[in-house]
From TrEMBL:
Taxonomy, superkingdom: Bacteria
Organism: Deinococcus seoulensis
Record's protein name: N-acetyltransferase
Record-linked InterPro entries: Acyl_CoA_acyltransferase (IPR016181), GNAT_dom (IPR000182), NSI-like (IPR045039)
Matches recorded under SUPFAM superfamilies: Acyl-CoA N-acyltransferases (Nat)
């Protein structure tokens, strides 16, 4: 798919040519973040992905996992700190919502302070149940 131009970056829906060196600086404040090669593997396993790219560097991304029939879940939306507040996240989410418009349900979980952000994108508040295994937060393969 052809990249979509924006003011200072382009949106891509394919990982063609993306290397681990282009996906660094994400997972800020995570105590055990995935390494860039693991992160790229995560993106490759996604049902859909949208990247914001500036001068060859990925500055933001959103991914969706899905059965491809009825439902999808958006586990991660991140924008590099120096690009936050510039509409990159909104552009990523708007494009992802378009990519998933054929599905019945699209869900995501977020912190309470982000609820207004997602409501402004047309999403509604709901409940989310979850478990976390922080020892596996980096995405490394089990021993």
């Amino acid at each position: 798919m052809t990249p979509e131009p924006t003011a200072a970056y382009t949106l891509h829906t394919a990982l063609d040519g993306i290397t681990p060196g282009q996906v660094q600086g994400f997972f800020v404040d995570w105590p055990n973040p995935p390494a860039p090669d693991t992160f790229l593997r995560l993106l490759r396993g996604s049902y859909r992905v949208v990247l914001a790219v500036h001068d060859g560097q990925v500055i933001g991304f959103v991914q969706a996992v899905s059965d491809g029939v009825l439902t999808a879940y958006i586990p991660l939306l991140e924008v590099l700190p120096e690009w936050q507040g510039r509409g990159v996240g909104r552009a990523l989410m708007t494009r992802m919502q378009d990519e998933l418009r054929h599905l019945y349900a699209v869900d995501l979980g977020c912190e309470d302070h982000l609820v207004p952000y997602y409501e402004a994108l047309g999403m509604r508040r709901g409940n989310l149940m979850f478990t976390r295994n922080y020892a596996r937060q980096d995405g490394s393969l089990p021993d």
